[in-house]
TrEMBL record:
The chain crosses the membrane at residues 125-146. Gene3D superfamilies: 3.50.30.30, Transferrin receptor-like, dimerisation domain, Zn peptidases. GO terms for cellular component: membrane. It is a single-pass type II membrane protein. Keywords: Membrane, Signal-anchor, Transmembrane, Transmembrane helix. It is found in: Membrane. Residues 636-747 form the Transferrin receptor-like dimerisation domain. Belongs to the peptidase M28 family. M28B subfamily. Residues 431-592 form the Peptidase M28 domain. Residues 24-33 have a biased composition (Polar residues). This is Inactive N-acetylated-alpha-linked acidic dipeptidase-like protein 2 isoform X3. InterPro entries: PA_dom_sf, Peptidase_M28, Peptidase_M28B, TFR-like_dimer_dom, TFR-like_dimer_dom_sf. CDD domains: PA_hNAALADL2_like. The gene is Naaladl2.
Amino acid sequence: MGENEAKSPNTSLQGKKMAYQKVSADQSMSGRSQFLDGDDLQGTALDLEWDMEKELEEPGFDQFQLDSSENENQGHPESVDLNLDSIQPATSPKGRFQQLQEETDYFSHYTRSAPKSNRCNICHFLKIFCTATILFILGILIGYYAHTNCPSDASSSGTVDPQLYQEILKKIQAEDIKKSFRNFVELYKSEDDMEMSKTIKTHWTALGLEDVQFVNYSVLLNLPGPWPSTVTLISSGQCFHPNGQPCSERARKDSSPDLLYSYAAYSAKGTLKAEVIDVSYGTADDLKRIKKVKNVTNHIALMKLGKLPLLYKISLLEQTGFGGVLLYIDPCDLPKTVNSNYDTFMVSLNPGGDPTTPGYPSVDGSFRQNQSNLTSLLVQPISASLVAKLISLPTAGTKSEICSPLELPHNEIRIVSMKVQTVTKFQTVTNVVGYVKGLASPDRYIIVGSHHHTVYSYNGQEWASSTAIITAFIQALMLRVKRGWRPDRTIVFCAWGGTTLGNIGSYEWGEDFKKILQKNVVAYVSLHSPVRGNSSLHPVASPSLQQLVVEKNKFNCDRRIQCPETNVSSVQIQGDADYFINHLGVPTVQFTYEDISALELSGEMILQIANEPVLPFNALDIALEVQNSLKGDRLSAHHLLAAASCLRESAELFQSEEMRPANDPKERAPIRVRMLNDILQDMEKSFLVRQVPPGFYRNILYHMDEKTSQFSILVEAWEHCNSLASNETLQGALSEVLNSINSAQVYFKVGLEVFESFLVAKT
């Protein structure tokens, strides 16, 4: 890697490169907009502390102060190269050209005085006539050559054009994606993480993406040891590797990387000899039942993965007193067509980011905590075939019409010795980041995220498909950009590092630039694992984006003979969207499908969010989601229902009074659109709660799975209350939910008041 590429984030983001740092408050700009200093905007700043001047001065990428469309054209409204209508919404509520039109005496300022003699009049007339004739001819020539030389299909920003989006997406070819996929897989087998990051950067730069750069962080990684972990059955003395293969010297020497990477990152390490206790899925009810009949202290739990967050179940096992846990996937929990009896897998016990710098970025000078492991338990994933051997079954979950779940016989005792070997060391995690700068609102970002691997792991094909997909979209987009088109808002493309070990790259980048991202990010589009699964389209979206997802899918279905079934939901998902959902409250969407249809839908979402004057978010859907989350609740919480009803009323009023007029081009006032978009992009932030059980989303709008419609933290608190005598946890969860609903209701109400104050000030 070159010297420049190895620089730290603070160094690499200087000069005329893209800088993801907030401009210091004490910096000033000489080109401060004169149109935002008027008395007509004073009222708007009182309620929500709007400072439009500051927003235009601090666009987030500090070089935008030098060359953004807003600052470029404030002093040159007559420029023939730009469409004044397209940049007007981003500059001020009243464009400069519009101001000149409204000044009735404007032309009188420049009317020449009466001539003093007829000769002067004739000479003057001839000069004007000649000049006008020359300019007329010159104008015709310029217009002709401009028409013939400029791309005929170049379009200005600020226009909603579904046909344009389709033309961009038509450039995506499945064969190109397959070729990129094969190249990435081959590179994955032979090169380290930095080499792959350099390949991605080189490829994106060649496609024309702007300011593609590395953002590096030195973080603590927990990697496999030199030999696979083992599980030994004491009664027979048989030793097994995690995949069920018997231990031997040959197997030890010839063990595949997949076998080495069957481990739990950030588990405690060592050896534990103890009785195995079957805890089924390890829920609070399961553990309550077991504790009544057995002493579980320092025993080894045999636990199925299931749908509850692993971190949550690990915390319950720790509280109960277990010393270790063997994790497995029951074949009965998988489709009948899947045979995973001998499959090994990897899990991470890292909630996110560098464990040594929780909540703050891992940059030079940061204090590092001593966190070599994140649990006191020895944790080891094993295959279903090994579970069958431990419980003395001849086969593991043979596929038939009726599947029998794996379970340890109640009256039999199994004592095993489990040995977990891992290595902890600091290593560099690299993010690759580039962008397409927006034309009208460059300080508003749509982030599109994929991931690349950090260490060798079993799921190399998953990250390769993710990287190939995002690269294909960049290629199609840049073909259009090179022909003169740009989106209204900036699109930032990120290939995250360290995803499999706990979304490390995305967390560190988010913590590093949290202040500016909180203010400027409007949406996150996840391409974590877009091509997988069966014929069912699986979209996951924030409540505010669900309606747009349905519309996009319906539009695509109308153009096809076969249409994938879809049921959009807001459920917890794996991948790097985690930080943006749970710490920034950013509206998020992710599609998963068996072919590139997921990319087509994702691409349409990206383009529409990036280019529509009014963000296509639905405020009312958030209120409806809250009400649905309280339906059928076992809790007698009438005050929650009343608060949800008030929220719905405010959201309905906001939707009808502000969003509908703003979507009408005839009524669309640029300053009101900007204010409205600021409200829309921050709607979900009210639903970020302070504390949740391990593994649960802080954004309570997201549910545990499609079958659970209630707020996840209330469901967990109810179960916790049943298992304990105290209801303190339940009362705390109820307070968190109530505060979120009230906060959102006030947010919409204050937003309406701001618009009313604005209208009063204008009149």
